Amino acid sequence: MKGLVLEIYYKNKKQVCLTNLILCFIWLPMVYLIDSQSMIFIYILMVFSANSLFILLSQRKDYDLKLYKYEKTLPVNFNYVILSKYASQLFMIFISTLVSVFLIYTSMILGRSYFDYGFSDMLTLLSVIIAFILQMSAFFYLTLYTIDFEKGDLWIVLGIIISIALVILEVFTLNNLEISKGLGNMILIFSSVSILLLSYYICSKAYTYGK
Predict the structure, then answer these.
(1) Per-residue pLDDT tens for 98-150?
(2) How many CB atoms lie within 10 A of CB 197?
(3) H/E run at residue 1
(4) What pLDDT does residue 62 have?
(5) CA 159, CA 161: separation in Å to the nearest integer?
(6) Among residues 45, 71, 47, which one has the least CA distance to residue 59?
(7) Where in the sequence is the domain holding 41, given as residue range(s)?
(8) Based on the structure, what is the number of domains in the chain?
(9) What are the tens digits of pLDDT across the range 160-176?
(10) Residue-wise burial string across 32-65, b where 16 or more C-beta atoms lie within 10 A, e elsewhere
């Protein structure tokens, strides 16, 4: 499986590195121009979305070229093929988190504080965005492997729409239940990881059955 993950990584390495460098350079002047927490949320969301979409679009292109037929001939366990897709997304979430923390702390060093409650607000911001990316990825792979390999663009668009709706619903529910921020963040991430794991389980079974 390691080789499958590395193959995905090296295929997107240049685009991901270049995009993150550009986002970091753009951030420096924006620190002095932006004084809105909502704009920071959008910018950090861009960081996560760009990295995640690179992976999804790359895999969508592979399936447009019908490379999924080649995948089924690989001398590896079928589950590892699917797991490599999910693992690559988790790796990009990790990279995006590091970049986002770097950007936020850079702004703090430069004298900008966008969070009224400091560290807890930053964790809430990251939790909401990570939950969105996890759910979007789960929906994309679920529909890709259970419905149609060759409609990747449609699954990405629907995944974005459905994930936004689900995260908003989850956040609204947690707020109405008056759950603390810390516990709410944990519930949000736990539910999103659960959705991702369920998606992986269904996809692995569908992929194996399709073989």
Answers:
(1) 988 888 788 777 776 666 555 677 788 889 999 999 999 999 888 888 887 77
(2) 13
(3) none
(4) 59
(5) 6
(6) 71
(7) 2-210
(8) 1
(9) 999 999 999 999 998 88
(10) eebeeeeebeebbbbbbbbbbbbbbeebbebbee
Pick 209 or 132 by higher pLDDT.
132
Tokens of 91: 């790796």
Could you count the other beta carbons within 10 Å of the beta carbon of residue 85? 22
The total of other beta-carbon atoms located within 10 Å of residue 5's CB is 18
Among 124, 104, 116, residue whose Cα is nearest residue 167: 124
Residue 31 has pLDDT above 80, yes or no: no
- Look-up of token digits 């966008």: 114
Unique residue bearing structure tokens 């923390």: 101
Q: Are 140 and 159 in contact (CB under 8 A)?
A: yes
Q: Which two tokens stand for residue 52?
A: 């995640």
Q: Distance between CA atoms of 27 and 8, rounded to whole angstroms?
A: 28
What is the C-alpha to C-alpha distance for residues 94 and 48, in angstroms, rounded to an integer?
9
